[in-house]
Amino acid sequence: MTEFKLGRASSDSHYRLKFFETTGSTNAEGLAAARAGDPGRCWFVTAQQTAGRGRRGRPWAMPVGNLAASLLVVVPNHPATAATLGFVAGLSLDEALRSVAPDLAFRIGLDGVEGTGAAGRRDRLRLKWPNDVLLDGGKLAGILLEAEPLPDDRLAVVIGIGVNVVAAPEGLPYPATALADLGVGIDAARLFEALSDAWSSVSRVWNEGRGFKSVRKLWLDRAAGLGETVAVRVGEQVFSGVFETIDEEGRLVIRSPEGLIRTIAAGEVHFGTVATSRQ
């Protein structure tokens, strides 16, 4: 059995770990613990997740060997601030991946030059709004936040993180990839250990939302599609425009061809000008 453990920095910051050989959903485990009075700062990790879910209630397949982990935190009941924890999670996973597999950071251009131009180094890891991590343009990981109010004006937030370590789901309407597909020989336990330490560091910067300005800047530095045309599906509507930035609450800001600025709190981003109904 693969042993999952917290990183040293995470343990020193008084995080805890609950491991399950098999469970339906690590997010569900975290929410159940919150209802039972768990004070938070607890990771829930499983070797096999049988009923994972993604955004909009979609099922999230997780073969054995992939990483399924959820973190329960208890914060003041300010939903807009709590929602920015998704950016903390994305940055933490990005940092963890770069630490355990440094070769993932950049692809060297055909001319071998490590420059910043078109023929130079290209950052392979990018963060996609709101909560995905891309590797070479394919979805490597998804992040799902769920929250429930608690007594005394507190909010239980569970941040679920699923990473395609050994295999990526098939039949998706978008590209997906796994670490193993690209010859990266790390396992879920090693990645989780690095993730737990990275979270400890990035969450201190976030500082219950007071440091989101710094988190926002770091996230934008690694954002996929920034300055490019995107299509955003919001319910049955699709809005196209240039991805300008994210605002101080983490909302997507796009500029339409007519120059109209639109701020979007929730939606699905697709690169290019078309988002089909299947997407």
Automatic annotation (TrEMBL):
UniProt EC number? 6.3.4.15
User: A GO molecular-function term, please?
Assistant: ligase activity
Which stretch is the leader sequence?
none
Q: Which Pfam families would you find in this protein's record? A: BPL_C, BPL_LplA_LipB
Q: Which reaction does it catalyse?
A: biotin + L-lysyl-[protein] + ATP = N(6)-biotinyl-L-lysyl-[protein] + AMP + diphosphate + H(+)
The reply on keyword Glycosyltransferase is: no
Domain BPL/LPL catalytic, chain residue ranges per copy: 16-207
Q: Which SUPFAM superfamilies match?
A: C-terminal domain of transcriptional repressors, Class II aaRS and biotin synthetases
Question: Which Gene3D superfamilies does the entry mention?
Answer: 2.30.30.100, Bira Bifunctional Protein, Domain 2
Matches recorded under InterPro entries: aa-tRNA-synth_II/BPL/LPL, Biotin_CoA_COase_ligase, BPL_C, BPL_LPL_catalytic, Transcriptional_repressor_C
Q: Which UniProt keywords apply?
A: ATP-binding, Biotin, Ligase, Nucleotide-binding
Q: Under what name is this protein listed?
A: biotin--[biotin carboxyl-carrier protein] ligase
Instruction: Give the organism the record lists.
Output: Kaistia terrae
